[in-house]
Predict the 3D structure of the following.
Amino acid sequence: MRLARKFYHLRVRDYSLLLRTAVVLLAVRLALWLVPFRSIRTQLPPMRCAGDPDNVDQLLWSVRCVSRLVPAATCLTQALALHLLMSRAGHASCLRIGMLSTNGTVEAHAWLEQKGRVLLGGPDVERYTLLLVIGTE
């Protein structure tokens, strides 16, 4: 009920952003299920200079909200979706994928940074050994 009340009081611009985010998150999730990551990585669009006027905080908010509703919206799904949304809006970001090995188990993690600040997937990302970097800061 509280969620419905919050949703009811959003601005039209916020509804539009949530809808665009839902489309991107679902597309990323489906692509990660159906296509090898190597292929996805080569198809990432270059950053635009100007685009949607959404600021980074709005984009981050929308990804966090919508990812609760998308099945299996993992750290990679969320980071990749936010990277795409930020790129479309003309904001540079850096998608990082790392690995942590403890007691014979391997754990992978993805996070998104902008200007050295972890936007999504933080705060203890320094524990991970960096494997892959996509994008520039």
